[in-house]
Amino acid sequence: MVFTLRWGLIGAGAITENFVKDILSDPVERHVFDVAHKVHAVSSRSKEKAQAFIDKSTGDAGKSIIAYGSYDELFADPDVDCVYIGIPHSLHYQVSLLALQAGKNVLCEKPFTINANQAKHLVRVAREKKVFFMEAMWTKFFPLTIALEKMIFEERILGPLRRVSSDLSYNFPRDARSRLYDPNLGGGSLLDLGIYTVTWAQIVCYNHPDNHRSKPSDLRSLILKSPLTGVDDMAVIVATWEKPHLMSVATCAMTVKGSPDCQVRIEGEDGYIILPVNSSHPEEIRVYMHGKEPVVYKFPIPGCGLFWEADSVARDIRDGKLEDDRHPLEQSIAVMEILDTVRAQNGLIYPQEIESTEE
Prior knowledge:
Blueprint: E1 3-10, H1 14-23, E2 35-43, H2 47-57, E3 66-68, H3 71-75, E4 82-85, H4 92-101, E5 105-109, H5 116-129, E6 133-136, H6 143-154, E7 161-169, H7 189-206, E8 218-225, E9 232-241, E10 246-253, E11 264-268, E12 271-275, E13 284-289, E14 295-298, H8 307-318, H9 329-346, H10 352-355
Parallel strand pairs: 1-2, 1-4, 2-3, 4-5, 5-6, 7-10
Antiparallel strand pairs: 7-11, 8-9, 9-10, 11-12, 12-13, 13-14
Helix pairs in contact: 4-5, 5-9, 7-9
């Protein structure tokens, strides 16, 4: 029997539009036969905006979707199985908290929160309420990522791993009015882009079988602040992982465009792997073994690629799980702690209104 998860969507922006288009696609097209998705309701800052989003983004399915003008109305709807939160990350903590306190399962976009303390509070509330909670780190759910982990950890094709470097950089317009440059919205490259490059360090180093989920032995960083608003234009994060004897280098920027040929590089004693553009959603693994011709494995992403994380959430909720095995809550907290350390080392502080917790 196919299990259908009924979603309530918070937000009417581009990421929510991509998410809804993906989950409304036919799961059989991606060889998924056990779960499906239904959008039950959408909530935005007004009922009119929610309805406009439904009309634009959901096609024929929109005829049965409810438009709400407040988040509380959606949280109170008993037919919403899981809430997807796709709003600016400066609001993730407050809105996730309301949803969890209302007893709803939640999938919240990345970054989870502004800081680790907020993430830890949300996790405690989720566990007290006994509801499912996950950060929407879609990259971890790609077939490419699963195949890569098998190559480097099970098959050990690179031999002992020694270093991973990852980058995600764009040349965005310099605009003090932009969300990316607004400190009140958690602007800067670190939370928007750096979370991906730190996640690749986590995939390779933190999850390394010899690391036993240990934190970095040492972590050092530099950021270059924007002269416009003081948020970070770019960041470099270097960490050593003593148990597996690994080093990670994570970089991000919003004033230069990264190289399309190498977004992630994983190096072992017997060779290396390159993931070309884009480190948030790569579609190709290039394997270079010493003394051999390179081999390329392609993993095309139909749609936007957001349905794989949604499928995993549906299975988790169907099976009564409160967190996901591929992206457990402690890993979201671990990444936020690294981002906190980088900000502390470089004096990057956001307004108290978005840094505080409600405990």
